[in-house]
């Protein structure tokens, strides 16, 4: 059944839908304390049974274990509320749930540290560490300058939950030789690699199958403790084991995104030329490695010049341990944070200079490729910004005083390349991709590319979910990479196939292709990080404060060759809604003891249809140099919308917006004024 | 904590399912685990997401908020009942395909059944009315635009075909 029919008929196969005979249902006993010594655990599977650590694989993962690796089950110490301590299982889900209460844990609570800035000088949260600062790096070169104008500020993007509507989950089975794993994932290869590394069994003995995946947004790219326990138990009991995360668990124990503080200082002359930038980026890493805190601290720092030619730049990047669930990637994963910090301070500088912010941006944009002292290549941005101003109708909307505008750069995670396979058999074409779709509709653009290359009708092409046995290797779907490197792998596989048909038949024809049997695997090797530019314009209505309504939410993106304009618009709409959520409602806050204050997806602030506007998007005409000619788009809206929206609110209310989400108390100030 | 079991019979998509169950069993669990109809999804534990929406005795309900024992004797329509495999798709299903009303597909069943209940109640809907009616259903992927377009298309398509044939599915 094709994808469309499947989902509208309720015939998807999500991980929760898999039920094997004889299944054991797994549940976890989780820490009630943000920091405590564990005196004793009575009952359940514990650290004594599974004395393993979680490997750092997937998006932003460095591989291996490192000094602050996450124990699969806590041994004598817990470092965040929700950390798995013990596991229980039973023949049915309700009994399994009941068993959670049968396990008793004696704790000796310790003082937790929640605020990353405080954690810098707080005693190390793990024994044997010298400091909670696990990354401390500098990018660029220090400088001194006598500038006409210096503006500085401190911005915060607080943590938010990834909150796909389908939470995490896994089903494992072991036949004595091979471990088979069904899971909701962005990368079957991360899961296979992670399990192999942690359990110490060869990759060839693990088969990972991607079930239909109900959204992920960064959440489902890597390894988690629950997956290891499920695999361990399946191997031990030789029975299928199933674990499905509850939303409550998701909110306390799944890696959330953002959680980044950026202090930034601009030096400029009176005409508005930015002469230098200094910054200090602090990522709230949470309690262990394995997420993306270490990577993202450096990633944010290196992007801090935004799309501008700034000759002097010096940025410190730190990742700091706190007694909270480890931070992970969330749509954008470091890109939105960096653009928030630089774009917000540019607006501030415009105010200081009493200058139009678009004019200020144009003044500092680059007309050629520019290598930022912070490390990244910045593509010519001047033309794009100019065009964006026209297309988004800046001159019409910006003067109205309730409008914000932002530009940004999206660095695609193209490095590492990707794999694809095309098989032709019985007159049908089947294809697989190394990176696994979870809403991006790889099926749609994949079929289109195959049709383009091989001339076969799309109705005989079938797209398969991720399967580690179907391909030799692969990376994953994240970082706006799939249409670029996955698409290119597919194009290259198709071209190879075409050549083979040509060689065998003297010339290529679809009849020759479809009457034969062919199987082509291609790894598209790529080691460059590509980029594209994006811009957003947002207007707000604040007549009903503290309610804020977004009225216009417009986007202008360089998505290269747009493979499917409707689905590309869909990516924009979904990401823009998340960008609005980040500013207005989404939060994952904790009290001073490290207790999460958010217990439902509604509290977490995922927005409903009645609170959102229509989204508009237009595309810049361009093509990438990759075989698919596409550029990524998925993360563009989360990069640009939060900062454009913040500016709109700032102008409408007269309050400086430095932090997402907006706090009610802060907004109330505007009402009083 | 073993509980005394109760016999519960529910008519789902025109078929009777009868089973001895623990009183705490939720309707969504009954549908998924006993009737084996996994098109009804679970997305939360606080009745916020609407992924579990079904039609019970003509009204849209979140099946995670109803105990199976409360649904005893009821008629329930789930996504699987909207079109039997191979059968013609319901106009709402067609519209969701045409307007690309989903990305990951996880919220889709709940969205379609919420739309069905809405369109059974009122026609010629404005965009705001649709947005309002969807306020109990979360989608994390689409930003809702394509879902709203799907429902608007279904609204007009149903008006066209209604005269010719009976397309309402009544539960
Ligand atoms: S599962 Fe029923 S509302 Fe979320
Ligand atoms: S399509 Fe993914 S949650 Fe709606």
Structure description:
The complex is a heterodimer of chains A (673) and B (171). Among the domains of chain A are: 18-110 and 184-238, Aldehyde Oxidoreductase, domain 3; 379-412 and 530-673, Aldehyde oxidase/xanthine dehydrogenase, molybdopterin binding domain (Aldehyde Oxidoreductase, domain 4); 418-524, Aldehyde oxidase/xanthine dehydrogenase, molybdopterin binding domain (Aldehyde Oxidoreductase, domain 4, 2-Layer Sandwich). Chain A is 28% helix and 24% strand. Chain A has 17 helices and 25 strands. In chain A, strands 4-1-11-8-9-10 form a 6-stranded mixed beta sheet, sandwiched between helices. In chain A, strands 6-14-13-12-7-25 form a 6-stranded mixed beta sheet. Chain A has a 4-stranded mixed beta sheet with strand order 17-22-23-24, with helices on both faces. The termini of chain A are far apart. In chain A, 62% of the residues are buried. The model of chain A has no long low-confidence stretch (mean pLDDT 96). Chain B is α+β, with helices and mostly antiparallel strands and 171 residues long. Chain B has 2 domains: 6-81, Beta-grasp domain (Ubiquitin-like (UB roll)), CATH 3.10.20.30; 91-170, DNA polymerase, domain 1 (Orthogonal Bundle). In chain B, 32% of the residues lie in helices and 15% in strands. Chain B has 5 helices and 5 strands. In chain B, strands 2-1-5-3-4 form a 5-stranded mixed beta sheet, sandwiched between helices. In chain B, β3 (53-56) and β4 (59-62) form a beta hairpin. Chain B starts with 5 loop residues before the first strand and ends in a 9-residue tail after the last helix. Chains A and B meet through α1, α2 and α15 of A and α1, α2, α3, α4 and α5 of B. Bound molecules: FE2/S2 (inorganic) cluster (FES) (2 copies).
Main features:
heterodimer, A: 673 residues, Aldehyde Oxidoreductase, domain 3, Aldehyde Oxidoreductase, domain 4, six-stranded mixed β-sheet, 17 helices, 24% strand, B: 171 residues, alpha+beta, Ubiquitin-like (UB roll), five-stranded mixed β-sheet, 32% helix, globular, binds FE2/S2 (inorganic) cluster
């Amino acid at each position: 059944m094709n994808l469309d029919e499947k989902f509208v008929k309720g015939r998807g196969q999500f991980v929760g839908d898999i039920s094997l005979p004889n299944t054991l249902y797994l549940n976890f006993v989780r820490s009630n304390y943000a920091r405590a010594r564990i005196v004793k655990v009575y009952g359940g599977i514990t650290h004594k049974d599974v004395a393993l650590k979680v490997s750092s694989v997937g998006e932003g993962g460095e591989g291996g274990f490192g000094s602050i690796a996450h124990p699969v089950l806590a041994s004598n110490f817990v470092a965040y509320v929700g950390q798995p301590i013990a596991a229980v299982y039973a023949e049915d889900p309700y009994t399994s749930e009941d068993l959670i209460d049968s396990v008793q844990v004696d704790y000796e609570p310790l003082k937790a540290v929640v605020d990353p800035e405080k954690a810098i000088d707080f005693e190390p949260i793990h024994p044997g560490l010298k400091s909670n600062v696990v990354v401390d790096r500098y990018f660029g070169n220090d400088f001194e300058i006598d500038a006409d104008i210096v503006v500085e500020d401190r911005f915060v993007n607080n943590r938010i939950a990834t909150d796909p509507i389908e939470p995490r989950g896994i089903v494992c089975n072991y036949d004595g030789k091979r471990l088979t794993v069904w899971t909701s994932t962005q990368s079957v290869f991360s899961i296979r690699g992670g399990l192999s590394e942690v359990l110490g069994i060869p990759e060839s003995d693990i088969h990972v199958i991607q079930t239909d995946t109900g959204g992920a947004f960064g959440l489902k790219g890597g390894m988690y403790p629950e997956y290891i326990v499920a695999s361990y138990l399946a191997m031990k009991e030789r029975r299928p084991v199933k674990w499905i995360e509850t939303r409550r668990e998701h909110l306390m124990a799944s890696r959330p995104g953002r959680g980044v503080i950026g202090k930034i200082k601009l030096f400029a002359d009176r005409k508005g030329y930015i002469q230098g930038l200094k910054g200090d980026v602090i990522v709230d890493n949470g309690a262990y490695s394995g997420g993306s805190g270490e990577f993202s601290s450096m990633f944010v720092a290196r992007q801090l010049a935004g799309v501008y030619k700034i000759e002097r730049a010096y940025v410190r990047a730190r990742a700091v341990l706190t007694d909270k669930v480890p931070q992970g990637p969330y749509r954008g994963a470091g890109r939105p944070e960096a653009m928030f910090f630089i774009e917000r301070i540019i607006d501030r500088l415009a105010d200081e200079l009493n200058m139009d912010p678009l004019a200020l941006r144009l003044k500092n944009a680059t007309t050629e490729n520019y290598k930022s002292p912070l490390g990244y290549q910045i593509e010519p941005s001047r033309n794009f910004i100019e065009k964006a101003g026209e297309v988004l109708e800046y001159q019409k909307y910006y003067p109205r005083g309730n409008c914000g505008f932002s530009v940004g750069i999206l660095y695609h995670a193209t490095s590492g390349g990707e794999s694809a396979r095309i098989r032709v058999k019985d007159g049908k074409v089947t294809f697989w991709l190394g990176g696994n779709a979870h809403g991006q509709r790889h099926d749609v653009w994949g079929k289109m590319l195959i049709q383009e290359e091989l001339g076969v009708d799309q109705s005989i092409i079938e797209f398969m979910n991720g399967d580690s046995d179907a391909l030799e290797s692969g990376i994953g779907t994240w970082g706006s990479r799939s249409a670029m490197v996955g698409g290119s792998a597919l194009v290259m596989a198709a071209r190879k196939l075409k050549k083979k048909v040509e060689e065998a038949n003297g010339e290529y024809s679809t009849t020759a292709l479809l009457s034969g049997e062919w199987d082509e695997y291609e790894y598209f090797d790529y080691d460059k990080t590509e980029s594209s530019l994006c811009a957003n314009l947002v207007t707000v209505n604040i007549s009903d404060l503290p309610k804020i309504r977004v009225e216009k939410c417009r986007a202008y993106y360089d998505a290269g060759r747009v493979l499917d304009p409707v689905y590309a618009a869909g990516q924009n709409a979904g990401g823009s809604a998340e960008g609005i959520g980040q500013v207005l409602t989404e939060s994952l806050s904790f009290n001073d003891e490290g207790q999460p204050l958010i217990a439902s997806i509604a509290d977490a602030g995922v927005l409903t249809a009645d609170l959102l506007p229509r989204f508009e998007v237009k595309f810049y005409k361009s093509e990438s140099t990759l075989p698919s000619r596409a550029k990524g788009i998925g993360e563009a809206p989360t990069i640009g919308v939060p900062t454009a929206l913040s500016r709109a609110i700032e102008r409408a209310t007269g309050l400086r917006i430095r932090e997402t989400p907006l706090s009610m108390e802060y907004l109330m100030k505007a009402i009083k004024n | 904590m073993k509980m005394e079991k109760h016999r519960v019979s529910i008519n789902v998509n025109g078929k009777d399912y009868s089973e001895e169950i623990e009183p705490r069993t939720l309707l969504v669990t009954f549908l998924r685990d006993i009737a084996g109809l996994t098109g009804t999804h679970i997305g939360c534990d606080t009745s916020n997401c609407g992924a579990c929406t079904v039609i019970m005795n003509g009204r849209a309900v979140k099946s995670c908020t109803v105990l199976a024992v409360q649904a005893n004797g009821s008629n329930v329509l789930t996504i699987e009942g909207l079109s039997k495999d191979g059968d013609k798709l319901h106009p709402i299903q067609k519209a969701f395909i045409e307007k690309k009303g989903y990305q990951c597909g996880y919220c889709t069943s709940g969205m379609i059944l919420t739309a069905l209940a809405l369109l059974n109640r009122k026609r010629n809907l404005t965009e705001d009315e649709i947005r309002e009616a969807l306020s109990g259903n979360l989608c994390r992927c689409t930003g809702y635009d394509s879902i709203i377009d799907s429902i608007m298309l279904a609204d007009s398509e149903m008006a066209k075909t209604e005269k010719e044939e009976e397309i309402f599915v009544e539960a």
